[in-house]
Design a protein that fits this description.
Radius of gyration of chain B: 13 Å
Order of helices and strands of chain A: EEEEEEEEEEE
Oligomer: heterodimer
Structural class of chain A: mainly beta
Helix content of chain B: under 10%
Number of helices of chain B: 0
Largest interface: A-B, 28 and 27 residues
Structural class of chain B: mainly beta
Largest sheet of chain A: 6 strands, mixed
């Protein structure tokens, strides 16, 4: 049972336009949501996060929106740059067994074309 | 700071062989974890540790063993390698506390092939 879903395996956008990556979740006990970015042959790197008590968090070109009633979050990148081409993982944090654990989605491969 | 380091970068094993994947961090993080990444499967938690001497199972622990004798090191042992363990393995660390898994720092990964 997949608790964090990224239904789009890939996304292609033009440089300068907006990239919107989507993520859905099923467990209402998740208390924190994160986006990670991964380049080939490297480990994932943290990008941006949002607490479950907020609906928006912005950091430069990156904004994450959370809609708790729909159990949906999205990552907006504006403007998109070729260096943003990577796999983006959505992750959700939950307390289990007395410690926080991250549950990851399958990832969306973003390609930004010059 | 070197951050999170993993060795080896690549490894080929025969079915039934055992080996240890090494992971070390120099950030004095309490929380460390191992994930595997398979095509189309995202990252799945194998084992994790909230501090030296404390380990617990994640989502896919079978066939793997861990120990945490120091804050810095968190090795992952494959007891008897199987082709199903062919994957890319990532080690990660983060600060301790209730929000211990937030903003995890990942190593560069170990690509393991079991034939």
């Amino acid at each position: 049972d997949q608790q964090v879903k990224q239904n789009s395996p890939s996304l292609s956008v033009q440089e300068g336009r907006i990239s919107i990556l989507n993520c859905d979740y099923t467990n209402s006990m998740f208390d924190y949501f994160l986006w990670y970015k991964k380049y080939p042959a490297e480990g994932p790197t943290f990008l941006i996060s949002i607490s479950s008590i907020k609906d928006k968090n912005e950091d430069g070109r990156f904004t994450v929106f959370l809609n708790k009633s729909a159990k949906h979050l999205s990552l907006h990148i504006v403007p998109s740059q070729p260096g943003d081409s990577a796999v983006y993982f959505c992750a959700a944090s939950i307390i289990q067994g007395g410690s926080e654990k991250l549950v990851f989605g399958k990832g969306t491969k973003l390609t930004v074309n010059p | 700071n070197a951050g999170v380091t993993q060795t080896p970068k690549f490894q080929v094993l025969k079915t039934g062989q055992s080996m240890t994947l090494q992971c070390a961090q120099d950030m004095n993080h309490e929380y460390m974890s191992w994930y595997r990444q398979d095509p189309g499967m995202g990252l799945r938690l194998i084992h994790y540790s909230v501090g030296a001497g404390i380990t617990d199972q994640g989502e896919v622990p079978n066939g793997y063993n861990v120990s945490r004798s120091t804050t810095e090191d968190f090795p992952l042992r494959l007891l008897s390698a199987a082709p199903s363990q062919t994957s890319v393995y990532f080690c990660a660390s983060s600060y301790g506390g209730l929000e211990s898994s937030y903003e995890q720092y990942f190593g560069p990964g170990t690509r393991l092939t079991v034939t």
